[in-house]
Specification:
The chain is α+β, with helices and mostly antiparallel strands and 435 residues long. It contains twelve helices and ten strands. It binds flavin-adenine dinucleotide (FAD).
Length: 435
């Protein structure tokens, strides 16, 4: 049988390849991050810097906040404030990313976000939430808003409503039920002349809302014909504007370091200068923020999965049963291998999608959703497998693994339930013209 033109025999030299000089028994010891391709100097340096921040600041703060009540988390003097102070010292903001070329940004962003996720899932979301208001101002080139809201402010993103969770993420109503009655939105911005007046409320799930200084608000717009959810408005709202108030911080099972709560608007009047995207641009603004948020989630939860894997790997070397470290038991080694395999796949997808989305003319929402679903599902599965490896110890609060599991469970609902995102992304693939 003829061999294909590009085949070669192992050991033979090929002019287009480096000489074949593996040892007789080839072995590769993968680095801590798996089968990583070479990184640039900037990427390695940023990875080391953020890793050290994640280890020294995020992990201890995340565990401390997890054990506090939601009220204690947002109180003066809580470790939340220490985290924010140290985060600011890192100096990583949307503006610093924007100084890089699209390709550099697309490569560096997932590395940074994965390391943060490795530190703590909920605290990484705080970083993400803070980045969204200034990022929207930058992307939509709103000079007034860029100057009005420096990117060092604490931020939040409010889109979901008490009566419209999944619904508010589906602007084109592709997944709406045929016989559904969707009723009035809970929050409406009335635009008249050069004023926008906001009334209503957003859901109890707005991340970082209890302590935010600026909110990127997505809501229905009324330009004279009643509230329109498909052509809504995206506004940057100062959280100290008259008429803005907040609900009590939410108690929940996971990501307890991340404060969440309602935002209420009672005749909040702003100049139209505060609008990032008006009704005609609303769908673009929804598309962009979902693409960004889903990409962030993909990288963060890959990092969370890696942290659970590393803890289980270390524990499997320490814990002995039958006189040998449990990693010597076939089932444990196999379980660890599948955890590693899933993380590698999740990281590869997250990095590929980030690079595409930062360099393409129009980012791909369905690709970001694929990466978000994969990353969060991976974090949940790997954390669950890690608990299995820890045995009874995995269930106790003595070990951090149960916290990681609780954090990861919440991620499959956060930024859109994974099942709904899959339906939405599926429709997007059939009909890419509809958001
Ligand atoms: C940790 C966390 C952080 C969050 N952060 C923010 C934030 O920063 N800002 C913000 O605005 N919101 C935030 N959210 C809210 C989040 O986006 C919503 O919880 C999510 O979109 C689901 O809405 P819901 O909870 O109202 O569930 P529902 O919409 O009531 O859904 C309940 C179930 O019904 C299914 N379902 C609903 N509608 C459909 C449909 N049409 N087709 C098929 N299945 C359907 C869903 O998939 C789900 O399984 C956060 C949530 C969490 C958990």
């Amino acid at each position: 049988m003829n061999s294909p033109a590009n085949s070669f025999i192992v050991g033979e030299e090929r002019p287009d390849m480096p000489p074949f000089n593996w040892p007789k028994v080839p072995k590769v010891r993968l680095g801590g991050f798996g089968a990583d391709p070479a990184m640039t100097e900037l990427e390695s340096e940023m990875q080391r810097t953020v890793h050290s921040f994640a280890e020294k600041v995020m992990r201890p703060v995340g565990v401390a906040l997890d054990r506090m009540s939601a009220e204690e988390v947002v109180a003066a003097g809580s470790p939340y404030w220490h985290y924010l102070t140290e985060l600011q010292k890192l100096g990583i903001t949307p503006a610093t990313f924007m100084e890089l070329s699209p390709e550099e940004r697309g490569r560096l962003f997932p590395i940074v976000m994965e390391e943060m996720g490795w530190g703590d899932g909920g605290l990484s979301i705080i970083f993400g939430a803070c980045s969204l208001p200034p990022l929207m101002a930058l992307v939509f080139q709103r000079k007034f808003l860029i100057e009005r809201f420096p990117d060092t402010l604490r931020g939040c993103w409010a889109i979901t409503e008490p009566d419209h969770g999944s619904d508010s993420l589906d602007v084109s109503r592709q997944v709406f039920h045929a016989s559904g009655n969707y009723g009035r939105p809970n929050c409406v911005a009335t635009i008249r002349g050069d004023k926008v007046v906001i009334n209503g409320q957003k859901s109890a799930w707005v991340s970082n809302a209890p302590l935010a200084e600026v909110c990127v608000l997505y809501c229905a717009a009324d330009t004279g014909n009643g509230p329109d959810t498909a052509h809504g408005v995206c506004v940057l709202v100062p959280m100290d504007a008259p008429g803005v108030s907040r609900g009590k911080p939410l108690e929940k099972i996971g990501q307890r370091a991340l404060p969440q709560g309602e935002v209420f608007f009672d005749n909040v009047e702003l100049s139209t200068d505060y609008i990032v995207a008006g009704p005609e641009d609303y769908q673009r603004a929804v598309y962009f923020i979902h693409t960004e948020a889903n990409s962030q989630m993909a990288c963060i939860w890959t990092g969370v999965a890696r942290s659970a894997y590393e803890m289980a790997f270390a524990y499997a070397h320490q814990r002995k049963q039958g006189g040998v470290p449990i990693i010597r038991h076939q089932a444990v080694a196999q379980r660890l291998f599948h955890m590693y395999r899933k993380i590698e796949a999740s990281r590869a997808l997250a990095r590929r999608v980030c690079l595409f989305n930062h360099t393409a003319e129009v980012p791909a929402l369905q690709a970001a959703m694929a990466a978000k679903i994969t990353g969060t599902q991976t974090a949940f599965e790997v954390a669950s497998e890690a608990i299995q490896i820890f045995g009874g110890n995995g269930l106790t609060r003595e070990y951090p693994i149960e916290k990681i599991f609780r954090d990861a469970r919440a991620s499959m609902i956060e930024d859109g339930c994974n099942d709904l995102l899959a339906i939405k992304a599926g429709f997007n693939m059939i009909d890419p013209d509809l958001l």
